Amino acid sequence: MDKLQHMRVVVAIAETGSLTAAAARLDTSPPTIVRLLAATERRLGVRLFERTTRQVQITEEGSMFVEASRRILGEVAEIEDALLDRRTEPAGLLAITAPVLFGRLHVAPVLNAFLHQYPQVSARLTLLDRVVDLIEEGIDVAVRIGPVTAPDLVVAPVGRVRRCLCAAPALLDRLSPIGDPEARRHAPFIRMQGLMPSPGLSFRDGPFPFLPDTGGRRSRAVAHDPDGVRA
Length: 231
Hints:
By secondary structure, the protein is of the alpha/beta class. The chain contains eight helices and nine strands. The strands form four sheets. The protein has a three-stranded parallel β-sheet, with helices on one face. Helix 1 (3-16) packs across helix 2 and helix 2 (19-25) packs across helix 3 (30-44). The protein is rod-shaped.
């Protein structure tokens, strides 16, 4: 039984003063109005209207029912309008995670512009140099650098990251040209460990793989952020 529809019928009868007019307002037939009104009165055990062949007169119980029905129908309409507004314009909390340096340089500026464009949205940006569990930590959007293997995630590429080889000027003065494969073999590399695997670098004369962290000759030191590398 659609109680909201029964309320609409009773309110329409009270406001129009006629079963026929109520049927026209609700785009239905007079017999349907009569049937729904009778079902409502039978369920409540009271008469809501005194009916004759010429007029419909609301009872005291009917007035009480109409007053409550108007309030309930109004609240339902407000809720529906609010939900429709949320569907047409983004609203709520957006939880985002990204690598620390990338998040500072690229995600935070874009996020500020996004929040300005959508004032009903609030955001929580978590910058971590580790892969987080999106469900367990309540994350909506994760910016990842490197391959994403989880089959249950929706993935969209947003850019490319290029690695580069850097060195302090004093170190370059002491070494042979870094383009020399033999010089690279003995150079004291510091590798930055982040959210993506670091298999190595590619040079024109071939790939230069990193050895494992434990016992590797080419990357005796591993840092977790650019500040650690520069230090």
